[in-house]
Design brief:
159 residues, alpha+beta, GMP Synthetase, Chain A, domain 3, SH3 type barrels, 2 domains, 5-stranded antiparallel beta sheet, 3-stranded mixed beta sheet, 10 strands, 43% strand, cytoplasm, RimP_N_sf
């Protein structure tokens, strides 16, 4: 299945079914790994997706994507540190720590970390230790949440 069919058929079908079931389609991809082709569907919902949610969606979607040329169907969580891509992702990440990796250096740096303070169609606004930084969305190669874990002693570590 060409990539255009994936986004023209599978993604809309999965998005509609996910919404009906109370989930959000984060992404759908068809990738070749080793000898097999994997159709991967990433779901999320408020409070996080569970294994039971993934199994329930798998059973519902499998008969609807039989005509797609794949060997393995995977329905999974995108993970805590998944890249942020859509306005919905950015809205969910407002006022939380993020890391932005740029294609090209800006002011001598290719990576910025700070709190996502705002965004629009073209720009991300970060509050960093050095002050406010505005980054063009097209200049960002990857934008990910920074996950902070607290240890038993009250210390913190990042993912």
């Amino acid at each position: 299945m060409p990539q255009r069919d994936l986004h023209g058929f599978v993604a809309p079908l999965c998005e509609k079914l996910a919404a009906e079931m109370g989930y959000e389609l984060v992404d759908a991809e068809l990738v070749k790994e080793g000898p097999g082709r994997y159709l991967r569907i990433y779901l999320d919902k408020a409070g996080g997706i569970t294994l039971d949610d993934c199994e329930r969606f798998h059973r519902a979607v499998q008969p609807r994507v039989e005509q797609v040329d794949y060997d393995f169907l995977e329905v999974c969580s995108p993970g805590l540190d998944r890249p942020l891509k859509t306005d919905r992702d950015f809205a969910r990440a407002l006022n939380t720590p993020v890391e932005v990796k740029l294609y090209k250096p800006m002011d001598g740096r290719k990576t910025y970390q700070g709190t996502l303070a705002g965004f629009d169609r073209e720009t991300l606004r970060l509050l960093t230790d050095e002050g406010e930084v505005c980054v063009g969305r097209k200049a960002a190669a990857q934008i990910k949440p920074v996950i902070i874990f607290e240890d038993e002693d009250g210390g913190e570590s990042e993912l």
